[in-house]
C-alpha cells in the first residue's frame, strides 16, 4: 500500500495557504475601510468642536458689544 502522508501534508498546506490568502484579501480592505472611517469620524469631531468654539467666541463678542437698552423709567 502506497504511503499517502506526503499527499495529505501537501493538500493540508495548500489549504492553509489558500485560507491565509483569502483572509488577507478580505482583511486588508476591511482594515483600510475601518481606518478611513475612524479618520473621518475624528475629523468630524474636530470640526464640530471648532464650530462650537467659534460660536461661543462670537456669542461672547456680541455680549461684549451689544448692551440692551433699559426701558425708560416713568
TrEMBL record:
<keyword id="KW-1133">Transmembrane helix</keyword>
<keyword id="KW-0812">Transmembrane</keyword>
<keyword id="KW-0472">Membrane</keyword>
<feature type="transmembrane region" description="Helical">
    <location>
        <begin position="15"/>
        <end position="41"/>
    </location>
</feature>
<protein>
    <submittedName>
        <fullName>Histone H2A</fullName>
    </submittedName>
</protein>
